[in-house]
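stage 2 :: seqdesign
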């Protein structure tokens, strides 16, 4: 048997993390567990998803970019990280590309992404 198949079968039994569906251009908040010494704390990282890469569930990562103190900060999170506590979608962005690296060169109002219009459901009276 091929070693790659053996490894895939071993990892197939593990729980695959289920997060809400998001794509490039969406603004999300990732609650990340940080260990400092013998203490654990939760830290929230809110920013725009600039790319999602990887083909298998165990190699998939997503990159989030935010502006902190006028400086751009990017962080790469693996989908299968045990340190991710939760992912919350704040805004759904309207972009044409899957990798929006052009945001790195933009500042201020030019770096804003249009929000996609969601269909609203009216309640019948």
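stage 2 :: out
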């Amino acid at each position: 048997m091929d070693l790659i198949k053996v490894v895939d079968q071993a990892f197939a039994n593990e729980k695959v993390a289920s997060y809400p569906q998001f794509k490039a251009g969406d603004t999300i908040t990732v609650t990340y567990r940080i260990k400092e010494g013998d203490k654990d704390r939760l830290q929230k990282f809110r920013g725009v998803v600039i790319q999602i890469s990887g083909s298998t569930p165990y190699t998939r990562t997503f990159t989030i970019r935010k502006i902190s103190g006028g400086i751009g900060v990017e962080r790469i999170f693996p989908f299968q990280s045990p340190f991710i506590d939760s992912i919350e979608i704040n805004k759904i962005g309207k972009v044409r590309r899957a990798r929006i690296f052009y945001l790195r060169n933009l500042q201020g109002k030019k770096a804003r992404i249009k929000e996609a219009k969601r269909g609203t459901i009216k309640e019948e009276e």
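stage 3 :: structure notes
- The chain has one domain: 18-105.
- The domain at 18-105 is CATH 2.30.30.790 (SH3 type barrels.).
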